[in-house]
Design goal:
- 3 copies of one chain form a homotrimer.
- Chain A folds into 2 domains: 115 residues, 3-layer Sandwich (Rieske Iron-sulfur Protein); 267 residues, Alpha-Beta Complex (Naphthalene 1,2-dioxygenase Alpha Subunit, Chain A, domain 1), CATH 3.90.380.
- Chain A has 11 helices and 18 strands.
- In chain A, the strands form 4 sheets. In chain A, strands 11, 12, 13, 14, 15, 16, 17 and 18 form an 8-stranded antiparallel β-sheet that branches.
- In chain A, β9 and β10 form a beta hairpin.
- Chains in contact: A-B, A-C, B-C.
- At the A-C interface, loops of A face α8 and α9 of C.
- Chains A, B, C: Keywords: 2Fe-2S, Iron, Iron-sulfur, Metal-binding, Oxidoreductase.
- Chains A, B, C: This is Rieske 2Fe-2S domain-containing protein.
Chain lengths: 425, 425, 425
């Protein structure tokens, strides 16, 4: 269904590529605010859309995201000194402010204006929801700030983390879009994980043949997966895909809501962001502790890094006994690494021209199509889905409804944000 | 003698290459039977001729060798669940039988025939001599099963293992064909190894200027190396090369017989198989223990892998003192790693157009020529050497004969399999 | 200022490249004499200008530098046996003398002249100053031996070591030419290192805006950096760059003199040589101990290797606290690793077409120009700077002089070698 040429177009996001140009029109989750914990703390390397960048928080608390390399002789400013309102290259002392403007070239004579002519690439940043967001596109096209619910609730209601995944963003994101694999890959969790165990939803998800229906939304896609529930009823799980790379998972019961962002570092690596929030209450200490320990949709990280303890170099610590017993369906522990292990096993960039898709892949097919169409529309008047913050104010949810409730009504309910308790089961 | 173009043709064995097409006409040692110890045990990754494959033993004990990647979305089935009579992809539950036929796509409706249309590449397998053999060529050309003596004796009479060597198969195989390097590289063993020490053969092999004579056999080549023995006598070591990659080492006295298979994983790595058998008695516990410990032609393996403890990353644990003293001629311990260290030191693919060959390389020259000729004959009526199992039923051997015994008589004796005690000294 | 094409020309030094042809006209520091401590000791791998070579010291103490690979089947002679007056390939016993001449092919019949026709590439070597030098160019153009002062003083007056740096030689050498970065990158040392601390020079070097003046010398460049000193005086640091890759650092007071050679291994790695000598006295035990411990311009090495303990895989053990406090300007410990960390951070080969140069880069600009010009002059009658040993007999030095001393007089003083005490402050 996807040609080799289309696949190339979908996966490449460096400067000047069609998809890279599209993604540069959106605000991008760049790093965690806590990575720049305090003013004048150490700088952090960030790689986005194949660009090597450096982030730091200046004396006034402003976040800078600039070219990693000094304009002068191209050494990495990661070794730079964070000084009053800027970073100084340790090689010859050239200093830059948070906008990448060179403010001092010490070797120049007193009255020199040389430094004024030197400016690094820099991208505007905004902090919301514990995340530093950046915009890498044309300044005149900068959109309004993102308004995802998880980013707008009080800090106490939210937990966010990221991990580095060693494959192209798209095969990771397709996992987030794909509502059908839960019944298999994560089925061990349906029986054992406190977030699922004992819920009606977990029970209904044992139906391995969901019917998928997909509707275009202003933000991207609304994806409904219908499974058999009790007599005369259907169990709907309705998932949101917001352009360009956000996916939202329907919760179970009153549990917190989960979402992901799948952000390209380069064409063979991505940041897998995970966000958890509850719209109406603070997260509980035991919920936070579980997430910090790498449970649920989170993964255990190698301390001091955003790389995972289980990874392809150790076969994800696969446990064949647990796989045999069925407590871990694939033998890999944790939802995050279950997904990551399979997605990385496809190789850094899967060749989609070799795929053999089925009916339950309809959402993935539609998402690819929408990405290609949006990239094709660049430079026209066509609006870009997901650019308007109004499109962010949606939720995923699950419902049990009589079989005869029309689909459109289900989707309409799901896409309308409510301030009341969410209704998943 | 070999042009760059001929070298390329000799070393490349991926799908569609001349040598790859030739090798796909033969049964190929794929993995050890013991790697698939029991029905429904974990699957094993196998790489052959640049193809990524997966092996498993199904509920009925049948061995499957199929494409490593699920037809659906191309994740590795190494993470798959071994279930009743098949393997199930953990992503969406597609199930395949031992022939790679998809038997179940759970997301499809009850009456769907979709799964019938999905089939993975798979290769037929047969088990013989503790080895799973596969055939990767056109089904209509599948030859009879291999009948090497080591594969046909009772299990008690045999020991087989493999190790991964990090270079092209050909430079490894050429070491197995080369009867002259023993007097140098392995000369320490001639004095110290229990298999050689004190034998007449070891003594005679100190003649470093063997005369080589090569005769084409139906299977490949018979290679005679003649050295000086006692007054008026010659010491012959007669080695077999059976197409496409089998070599057999003449034994010393009543010791067990050794052989190798040099099987391409891809163009820069190969499986170095070692086989030991005695035609008329069970191997002794001390013989087995020595081989399991990586002595003789075997190597010490990193537990849980087929990679060697001594390897290029640790300079093969070279012992310069032992090299100086001559107890280890090259300073590397063990016949296997002595060969592997030098062969890997050539780089992954040696450029044979730079070689400077001598008279003792005649067997190597002839083997290359025979490989190229056989590849050139594909599609014609010319028979492929080594395809007929009758050509497998040969032995290597050593003899002391009067100087005036004609060579042809020696070779005739050597190529005739006898059921009596073997006659090496 | 440098185009991509010029950059390519500057950085590539393999056989047949313009810069490679230029460099092959000079004597090249190949390895430390102590790496070949005694006759018939183990051979050592050496990589120079993208050629894989092997060094050994033969029975008579002569140094051989030959092709790493046996002419016969191309195995690495690093596994070779050092025997009487030569090295023997462990595969088939071919023996080579220190000139790469094959002297024995044991498999050949007694009267054979075959070995006479086999010769490995080999390069003449000379030992001076604890260093084995080689000449890789056309024999008829071999220049006189190098006569750098450090190489000519008694052994007791000198310390030499090397380390492997993982980037192109040029960006390393440019650091050695660059007199202005000391005021920044190494400024911590100006306050704390025993070699600098408390000297007038260290005090004056806090002027971060040196004026640079560059004069062509017969050897390469003389580079004068003038800083403010006490009332009405200037502090001059005069650095030598001798073609093709030698740099000399002005000392502080009566301290020993330091120099470097930046020698390409291949286009992405180089040997960073450091040489220290005192022209008129033996080095003191505490000086030697400090250097052996990797202090000053030396680096701590991984035992048994010339690779550094601090390296890019451990972020050079950066100490952000020390960086913050200013005791380590970039947070990296030691002058050598301060330079190496930044130079490696540019990537293996920096793209100079992206640079933004300033007035203090004039020496670097001139050096590049001189290298390109010299490569362009190959094959003409134009003399090559630095080829005549007379051009080696120069020193770097520092002076405090009245502001009105004309520059030419300063340089004239600096370039004249004196046998009296050196005069740096």
């Amino acid at each position: 269904m996807v040609t080799k040429a289309q696949n190339t177009q979908l996966v490449q996001t460096g400067p000047g590529t069609p998809m890279g140009s599209l993604f540069r029109r959106y605000w991008i989750p760049a790093l965690l605010s806590e990575e720049l914990r305090e003013p004048d703390g150490p700088p952090v390397r960030v790689k986005l859309l194949s660009e090597n960048l450096l982030a730091f928080r200046d004396t006034q608390g402003r976040v800078a995201l600039i070219d990693e390399f000094c304009a002068h002789r191209r050494v990495s400013l990661w070794f730079g000194r964070i000084e009053m309102d800027g970073i100084r290259c340790p090689y010859h002392g050239w200093k830059y402010d948070f906008r990448g403007q060179c403010t001092e070239v010490p070797s120049e004579p007193a009255g020199s204006h040389f430094s004024k002519s030197v400016k690094l690439t820099s991208y505007p940043c905004v902090e919301r929801g514990g995340v530093v967001w950046t915009y890498m596109g044309p300044p005149e096209l900068q959109p309004a700030f993102p308004e995802f619910e998880w980013a707008m609730v009080p800090d106490s209601h939210r937990y966010v983390c990221k991990r580095i995944q060693e494959n192209n963003y798209l095969q990771a994101m397709e996992g987030g879009i794909d509502s059908s694999h839960v019944s298999f890959l994560h089925s061990g969790e349906l029986h054992t994980d406190p977030l699922h165990k004992g819920t009606k939803g977990a029970q209904y998800q044992q139906d391995t043949a969901p019917k998928l229906e997909v509707m275009e939304s202003d933000g991207g896609l609304v994806i409904g997966a219908r499974r058999r529930a009790d007599e005369g009823h259907s169990y709907w799980r309705v998932t949101q895909w917001i352009m360009p790379w956000y996916t939202m998972i329907p919760p179970y019961g009153d549990h917190a809501l989960h979402g992901h962002a799948w952000v390209p570092m380069d064409d063979e690596n991505c940041y897998a962001w995970s966000m958890t929030h509850h719209p109406s209450r603070a997260l509980k200490p035991e919920e936070l502790e579980a997430m910090q320990n790498g449970q649920g949709i989170y993964a255990e990280l190698i301390p001091g890094t955003y790389r995972t303890v289980a990874n392809k170099r150790n076969d994800y610590l696969i446990d064949r006994e647990a796989q045999k017993k069925g407590t871990l369906y694939s033998g890999v522990r944790g939802i995050a690494m279950q997904d990551a292990s399979l997605q990385e096993s496809m190789g850094p960039i899967v060749d989609r021209s070799l795929e053999r898709l089925a009916a339950t892949d309809i959402a993935i097919v539609r998402a690819r199509r929408r990405l290609l169409a949006a990239a094709g529309n660049l430079g026209t008047d066509a609006p870009l889905p997901g650019l308007d913050p109004a499109t962010h104010r949606v939720r995923s949810a699950s419902f049990v409804l009589p079989e005869d409730v029309p689909l459109e009504q289900v989707l309409k309910d799901a896409t309308a944000k409510t301030d009341t308790e969410h209704t998943s089961i």
